[in-house]
Amino acid sequence: AQRVTQPEKLLSVFKGAPVELKCNYSYSGSPELFWYVQYSRQRLQLLLRHISRESIKGFTADLNKGETSFHLKKPFAQEEDSAMYYCALWGSGYSTLTFGKGTMLLVSP
Amino acid sequence: ETGVTQSPTHLIKTRGQQVTLRCSSQSGHNTVSWYQQALGQGPQFIFQYYREEENGRGNFPPRFSGLQFPNYSSELNVNALELDDSALYLCASRQGTSGRPYNEQFFGPGTRLTVL
Predict the structure, then answer these.
(1) Torsional sign, CA A72, A59, A99, B114
(2) Contacts of B46 in chain A (CB under 8 A)
(3) Which positions in chain A have a beta carbon within 8 angstroms of at least one beta carbon in chain B?
(4) Span A81-105, pLDDT tens digits
(5) Is B40 near chain A, with CB under 8 Å?
(6) Is the pLDDT of residue A6 over 90?
(7) How deeply is B62 buried, as exposed, middle or buried, from its count of CB atoms within 10 A (0-12, 13-18, 19+)?
(8) CA–CA dist A74, A51 (Å, integer)
């Protein structure tokens, strides 16, 4: 079975502080990992995927297969980053995404 | 190009009733997935339709059923509603097949179902 764990329900930081949202997964094969974001009153949208190896809105995430982690990082948080963040996994044997429970990021001025 | 739309926005039902939720996929997308998002939880996969056939199902009982139409729009039907069915129901569409590669899913705004 595949599983995604986001240990923090809420992460509160000040503007300009570094941010790391944790994500661990359980999957026996080679998964594809994603971060989705939901801003207030907006629909769920893709933030980034590990195979792209890109930085979106200053966020990066590295897949660590040894630690089965895919943590989301940003060196300097902005107030507009405040949102709900979901880590998700796509496994080869499954036709859809498995989501974690999400972490609410609050960035205060 | 229009995005994924869902109707209705909100719905209130009583226990034991039946409900139908609707989803219009994004233009050009042939695959629709439905998710249930309970309060404080991440979206949980219900099932997926590809070219009018169900080709994937999560851990939901048979009273959750669906349809996909030739224009790739979709319905989610829930019979014998229970209090625990109260949740946000999300529809997502993408262009793809049942397996790899993963093509990005685009989510609708959701339907908020309350069961009293």
Answers:
(1) positive
(2) none
(3) 4, 6, 9, 32, 43-46, 49, 86, 88, 90, 92, 94-102
(4) 999 999 999 876 656 789 999 999 9
(5) yes
(6) yes
(7) exposed
(8) 18
